[in-house]
Amino acid sequence: MNQEPTQLVASVRQFGIQLSATPRGARLARLLAVEQLRSWGLDHLAEPAAQIVAELAANAVTHGRVPGRDFRVALFVVEATLRIEITDTRGDRLPVAAGGCGLRIVEGLAREWGVRLGPVPRKTVWAELALP
Predict the structure, then answer these.
(1) What is the pLDDT of residues 86-132, one digit of tens each?
(2) How many angstroms separate the CA atoms of 78 and 131, rounded?
(3) Going along 43-122, which residue ranges are E strands?
(4) What does 35-60 look like in DSSP terms, one character per residue?
(5) pTM (2 decimals)?
(6) b/e for 97-106, b at 16 or more Cβ within 10 A?
């Protein structure tokens, strides 16, 4: 008797790119994120995701910048969640939501957000949006 093994198939979409830690790199991060979401057919998330990427990328190039080092933007769609990650090389400077308007905007748009440290000297600030 031949039996085929049962397999779980999870649809995971991912996109990542390393950009220069400059205002131009932050702007490009936002534009590329929007274009990637549109190519995945997630146009309805483009606006809130663009705001989140813009805020987190601006923080990365303003507060997380180390001369000569880039930052990274990554998008992941897993099941019913869009996860946005921005990684910079200033793990010693953690974001504080009470510090400015940017993270309050992220907090208002995202289902949840947080910070993951490491590997040294990096930190990743992430935010998640629910897919309808």
Answers:
(1) 999 998 888 776 567 888 999 999 999 999 998 999 999 999 999 98
(2) 10
(3) 71-78, 81-88, 112-117
(4) HHHHHTT-GGGHHHHHHHHHHHHHHH
(5) 0.88
(6) eeeeebbebb
